[in-house]
């Protein structure tokens, strides 16, 4: 993701994740509605990156002379579960409003909003680096001797972050110091973010990885082939309940039964103190066609346009398609953030970590 300023006016340029791994195609957003569409279609996705995108979207509306309040509202509500999106929007919007209140003209206020977005982008990159270090230290503590066999779900690498990611960044750190034996990559149905995106990132980084269907994970656990599960998060409630890509909760249950650490890696901005518990997390329900059809993102199939779908269920089939599920804190071994590790995962421990994060930010 990058901000660009061609002669015809500023734009936000995204790597279109729906086209991966077959094509690395850029998507150019000239206004907030275009960015909202990119968010809803998952051209841009991943909790930390959504926060950055939301902030840039506010700056884009301001720089282009559109209604900033209207743009901020549309962006913040583009997807309901990922708390980072609203955080990024509010941060840039507040910076813009403060500048206007202080007497700045439209141009200067837009520059302030852009500066806020760029600052968030840089902070997320630094948070990624620190999460990787904390996560690697935790793995070495829990699994002395190296040779880690890590199972991951969905996509949590550079495609979701201003840096190298969240959970994937930990696995990458282990790989770089020679302590990753195998990265097990869940396909992550129905949109295959693991197969399309995590495998893509693992291959680019020269990691030893193996792709599996989501429902094959149980046999891996039963065979003693998993040393730890690492996932990201789209929202962490005040009690430590974790909303992540659907399919995460079953992995947590399997991990508990097989005595395997289940570790969540996410920036502090993903912790939402205003959401008291898992039952209070709004889970996005997506269109049923994502389940009843197989999307063809980049390879044209006879009779089907790229981006279209091939039916795999009878016409009229109803589909249950939640984008996320919620894992209760008692199934989470640890939550790794840029400010440190919370383990065991408790309401008090998370509150203390968030308070410490605010102190660090203020200082």
The share of residues in helices is 40-55%
Q: Distance between the terminal alpha carbons, to the nearest Å?
A: 29 Å
Please state the CA-atom Rg, rounded to the nearest Å: 20 Å
Number of helices: 11
What average pLDDT do the residues reach? 94
What is the count of β-strands?
16
Structural class: alpha/beta
Could you explain the architecture of this structure?
This protein has 363 residues and is α/β, with parallel strands linked by helices. Helices cover 41% and strands 17% of the residues. The strands form four sheets. Strands 6-5-4-7-10-15-16 form a seven-stranded mixed β-sheet, sandwiched between helices. Helix 3 packs antiparallel against helix 4. The model has no long low-confidence stretch (mean pLDDT 94).
Structural topology:
Elements: E1 2-4, E2 11-15, E3 26-29, H1 32-40, H2 47-64, H3 68-76, H4 83-101, H5 106-142, E4 148-152, H6 167-176, E5 180-186, H7 193-204, E6 209-212, H8 217-222, E7 228-231, E8 235-237, E9 242-245, H9 248-257, E10 262-265, E11 271-272, H10 289-292, E12 293-295, E13 309-311, E14 324-327, E15 334-337, E16 340-342, H11 347-362
Parallel strand pairs: 4-5, 4-7, 5-6, 7-10, 8-11, 10-15
Antiparallel strand pairs: 1-2, 2-3, 8-9, 9-14, 12-13, 15-16
Helix pairs in contact: 1-3, 2-3, 2-4, 2-5, 3-4, 4-5, 5-6
How would you sum up this structure in a few lines?
Helix content is 41%, strand content 17%.
Question: What descriptors fit this protein?
Answer:
seven-stranded mixed β-sheet; alpha/beta; 16 strands; 363 residues
């Amino acid at each position: 993701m990058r901000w660009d300023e061609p002669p015809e006016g500023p734009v936000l340029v995204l790597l279109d994740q729906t086209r991966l791994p077959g094509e690395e195609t850029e998507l150019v957003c000239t206004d907030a509605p275009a960015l909202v569409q990119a968010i809803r279609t998952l051209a841009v996705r991943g909790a930390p990156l959504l926060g950055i995108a939301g902030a840039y979207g506010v700056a884009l509306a301001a720089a282009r002379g559109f209604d900033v309040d209207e743009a901020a509202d549309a962006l913040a509500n583009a997807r309901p579960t990922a708390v980072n999106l609203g955080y990024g929007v509010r941060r840039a919007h507040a910076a813009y409003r403060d500048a206007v209140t202080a007497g700045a003209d439209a141009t200067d206020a837009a520059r302030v909003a852009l500066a806020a977005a760029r600052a968030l982008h840089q902070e997320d990159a630094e948070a990624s680096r620190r999460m990787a270090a904390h996560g690697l230290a935790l793995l070495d503590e829990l699994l002395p001797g190296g040779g880690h066999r890590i199972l991951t779900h969905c996509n949590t690498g550079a495609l979701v972050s201003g840096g190298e990611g969240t959970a994937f960044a930990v696995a990458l750190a282990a790989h770089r110091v020679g302590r990753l034996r195998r990265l097990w990559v869940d396909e992550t149905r129905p949109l295959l973010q693991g197969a399309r995106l995590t495998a893509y990132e693992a291959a680019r980084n020269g990691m030893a990885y193996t792709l599996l269907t989501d429902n094959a994970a149980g046999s891996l656990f039963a065979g003693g082939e998993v040393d730890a599960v690492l996932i990201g998060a789209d929202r962490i409630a005040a009690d430590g309940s974790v909303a992540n890509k659907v399919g995460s909760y079953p992995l947590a249950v399997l991990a508990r039964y097989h005595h395997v650490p289940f570790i969540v890696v996410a920036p502090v901005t993903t912790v939402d103190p205003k959401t008291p518990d898992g039952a209070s997390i709004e889970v996005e329900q997506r269109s049923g066609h994502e389940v009843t059809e197989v999307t063809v993102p980049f390879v044209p199939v006879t009779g089907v346009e790229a981006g279209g779908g091939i039916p795999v269920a009878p016409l009229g089939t109803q589909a249950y398609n939640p984008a996320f599920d919620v894992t209760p804190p008692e199934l989470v071994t640890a939550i790794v953030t840029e400010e440190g590790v919370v383990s065991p995962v408790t309401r008090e421990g998370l509150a203390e970590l968030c308070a410490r994060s605010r102190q660090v930010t203020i200082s």
